[in-house]
Every structure is written in structure tokens, then in C-alpha cells.
Amino acid sequence: MRPMVAARMPETLPEGEAKVRAVREMFDAIAPRYDLVNRVMTFRMDVGWRRRAVGSLALRPGSTVLDLACGTGDLCRELAASGLVPLGIDLSYGMLAAARTRAPLVQGDALHLPLRAAAVDGATCGFALRNLAALGPFLAELARVVRPGGRIALLEVATPPNRVLRWGHRAYFGRVVPVIGGLLSDGAAYRYLPRSVAYLPAPEELRRMVAGAGFADVDRRLLSGGIAQLIVATRAA
């Protein structure tokens, strides 16, 4: 196992190139125990969320699916298990080095994909929208590489609509998760992750952005009482 190097996350939320550098360094640091922390802090619910995302693509077996911010390959493995052909791209070399998948993996920026137009049948992205330097250019690039009629499934954290669940989730995500992260991995990184929710647009704004980028039938589904969300859409012709 690679030696762990502590992440140095800024106290204020970074923007632009500073954010790109900070996010890359953070995920390089937490890569060795990333999967372990995910399973513990979500009580393994993340496994079901990824399975549902892949199922929502409703693509034929053999379809090529791009997994953006693929990390250690969780979604790539789920895609392969469903008879799809995954291709993973991630900004962090540390995450790719820790990956457990046979899918082809490429280190790259999701805002500048090394693919021709309409190259893939679908795309997934798991819990990374808030870590991108800019969401609009990402969605435009996604629309460029997914063929007309292709499908996307984007997983992200969410805020539960129920007031009691919202209070409990805020306390857990903001206080307990950083403790778990500090015990098992890197405290600075897992203090930053709850704060990074501030990067996400409001639900209706996110839906409008996806539609405006060239996707139709945009559907937002809440998972596990609203602590996670799944955005599913079809690339317009």
C-alpha cells in the first residue's frame, strides 16, 4: 500500500485552477482508503446507489460507457457486471493507481476529454459534480462525447426534503463524517467534503443546466430519503 500523504485543503473553498490542484492533491492523499471510508460512512448504501445509476442507463449490453471521475473504479466494475463496456477517466493519478477494475483508465480532466464527438453510448459520474472546476463546461463536454440517444446518470449528494432527516443528515455529514475520515484516512479531506456541497446549484437550476447542455427527459431522483440524488437524461438528437 502506498504511504499516505496528508491533504492540505484550504480553509476557504477554492475556485478555478486552485480548485483543480486542491482536488487532485486531496484525492491523491485519500486514495489508499477511499473505498473503505465510503463503505463505512454510507453504511454501504453507496453500493446500491451505483447499481441504481447503472440500471437507469437502460443501454444495450456491449454499449460503451464513459465513467467520469472514476476514482478506484466502483462504477466501472458495476458497468462491466451489467454487460456494458466501461472506460474510466479521473484527474487523480493516486485514485487510478488504487483502482480495482479491468476497465481502461485514463488520467485526464473532465472538462477536456480526450475523445471524439459522439464517441460513447453513455456516461456516468459518481459524486464528483461539486469537485469540478466548472459545471457548465463539464456538461457541454459531456454532451459532446455522448452520441444522440445516449444516456447519462449523474450521482451526487443531496439535501433531504424532510425537516427531521435534513437536520440529522446535516449533523452526520458535517460532524460525524469528518471524524470517520480522520480516523480511517485524512481528516482535512473529510472536513472539506461536507463544505464542498456549497458548490452545487439548487436542484431546479441543476436540472436546467443539464437540459440546456443538450439533454432531454432530465429526471432527478432522490435516493435513501434524499441524502443522495441521481440525475438521468438522454442526449438530444
Polypeptide structure, described:
With 237 residues, the chain is an alpha/beta fold. The protein contains nine helices and seven strands. The protein has a single domain (16-235), classed as 3-Layer(aba) Sandwich (Rossmann fold), CATH 3.40.50. The chain has helices spanning 16-30, 34-41, 45-57, 74-81, 93-97, 135-145, 163-184, 187-195, 203-212, and strands at 64-68, 85-90, 105-107, 120-126, 146-157, 215-223, 228-235. 41% of the residues are buried. The mean pLDDT is 94.
Summarize, please:
This protein is α/β, with parallel strands linked by helices and 237 residues long. 43% of the residues lie in helices and 21% in strands. The protein has a 7-stranded mixed β-sheet with strand order 3-2-1-4-5-7-6, sandwiched between helices.
What is the secondary structure topology, with strand pairs?
Elements: H1 16-30, H2 34-41, H3 45-57, E1 64-68, H4 74-81, E2 85-90, H5 93-97, E3 105-107, E4 120-126, H6 135-145, E5 146-157, H7 163-184, H8 187-195, H9 203-212, E6 215-223, E7 228-235
Parallel strand pairs: 1-2, 1-4, 2-3, 4-5
Antiparallel strand pairs: 5-7, 6-7
Largest sheet: 7 strands, mixed
Count of all domains: 1
What value does the Rg take, in angstroms?
17 Å
Number of helices: 9
Separation of termini?
Answer: 46 Å
Question: Which short descriptors sum up this protein?
Answer:
43% helix; single chain; 237 residues; Rossmann fold; seven-stranded mixed sheet; 7 strands; alpha/beta
